[in-house]
Design brief:
By secondary structure, the protein is mostly helical. The protein is built from 6 helices and no strands. Keywords: Membrane, Transmembrane, Transmembrane helix.
């Protein structure tokens, strides 16, 4: 169980690191804040947050577990589901509390995308579940040794 907890911690730290680095780089490269032109910033962030942490999850599962594919599934499914539920819950609570003023006609998803996470769109939620088979695929890859080259 300790390996799973370490794996979930690694995914969480990687997720936040990717988020912070990506938002900083986006601002430096474009000169725009992350909430401007959300179609571009959201796509940029979403792709990185779907790929990078779960790529490392597959590598972690391959290195530390005797059944890496099965382990990669459990290492991935918990953060994928928890992240989406937690962000949606926080957004719903903030919207119920009044948000930034007039919130009539604003959905929770629109509020989250506009105020906190420009990448959190229905497409991100659906495609985020593809990170589970992606990490399983990475975990199933054969190790390449230097001697075989």
């Amino acid at each position: 169980m300790g390996k799973f907890i370490n794996g979930w911690l690694m995914i969480t730290l990687c997720y936040f690191t990717v988020f912070l680095v990506a938002t900083t780089l986006y601002g430096l490269i474009t000169g725009l804040p992350i909430d401007r032109y959300r179609i571009y910033s959201g796509t940029y962030l979403g792709i990185l947050l779907i790929i990078v942490p779960y790529f490392l999850t597959g590598i972690y599962a391959r290195m530390f577990f005797s059944h890496p594919v099965k382990s990669a599934f459990w290492l991935s499914v918990v953060p994928v589901v928890c992240e989406k539920v937690l962000i949606y819950f926080i957004g719903a609570v903030l919207l119920a509390a009044g948000g930034d003023g007039d919130t009539s006609g604003v959905t929770v998803m629109n509020f989250i995308e506009a105020e906190a996470a420009p990448y959190f769109t229905p497409v991100y939620v659906i495609l985020g579940f593809l990170s589970i088979p992606f990490s399983m695929w990475i975990a199933s890859r054969k190790k390449v040794s230097v001697q075989s080259m």
